[in-house]
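We emphasize that the prediction below concerns an isolated chain of 336 residues; any contacts that depend on oligomerization or on bound cofactors are therefore not represented. The input was used exactly as deposited, without trimming of termini.
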Amino acid sequence: MSDQKKDGTCCAPSTTTAPPENCQKGILPQTAGSLPVPEAIREAKTGSNEGMVQLDGGTFLMGTEDDDQWVGDGEGPIREVKVNPFWIDRTTVTNAQFAAFIEATSYKTEAERFGWSYVFLGQLPKSKQRKMKASTVRNLEWWYAVNEAYWRKPEGPGSNIKKRMDHPVVHVSWSDAMAYCQWAGKRLPTEAEWEFAARGGLIQKKYCWGDELTPGGKHRCNIWQGTFPHINTEDDGYAWTAPAKSFKANDFGLYNMAGNVWEWCSEWFSDDWHKPASPLTRDNPRGPDTGQNKVMRGGSFLCHISYCNRYRVAARTANTPDSSTTNCGFRTVLDV
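Result of the prediction step, given as a token string:
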């Protein structure tokens, strides 16, 4: 798979890609983190386990050595990893849940502070695509930097989430997800916790439900069908995001651990930190101390075998902590 990798990716661009000239000049991404955090977020809370599943933890085989892996992503080697018991959300955080957070705290997401966020071209009307041609990202022509696109207006001005309150919230950066966690008294999962949960007790299967992508001809996740990036046949029933409880849950009762939206994890990304066997990398690993990008897992509605194929349970990617897109969300965990 690694020798077939395209220059572009269906995963997500980052704020390190210079915003196009016609994007309004807001707060620079690198300075957003210095803005004051609302008092309501700073207050310590004890998280509720409502809507969560308690997992007993234990030892599992993490990673893959399949031919389908992206070698440069550091998916391997297969290794025995231990995680402690924890609670995890059944679904990604929804628009309704995120709206409650905003209502309680008046928090402004980084996309709102910057004044723009990334939207996939197919989500924009043809007329807007033509007008915004200069807003495409170089080598990623299916991504547009759209002024005033943020979680409440996912496709920019004129769009809304009124009929998508049960869909996963999008246009949230890692920093936004952390702010939500702090308010809710929870945290983001480590990458090991995420994969333990996604596997649902299955051992070294390719997907969250087994080795067949569509067992019995049934779709089990929201990914791209057709020819990426221009033709989506929507065989799974969805073009873009699906409700957070779409499709059958995995054996742990968790929904959409593959496809729909990428999910932020807590740690910095590295393609080799985990390779040396040690207590640090095998016993409740927390990742490297520093880095440039944060781990993302699960794939999204844009993943397609011809470009990404990252809806596999061991697949991983990353983005800068201040980046936000139309295909990335998160779920939370809670210590037992």
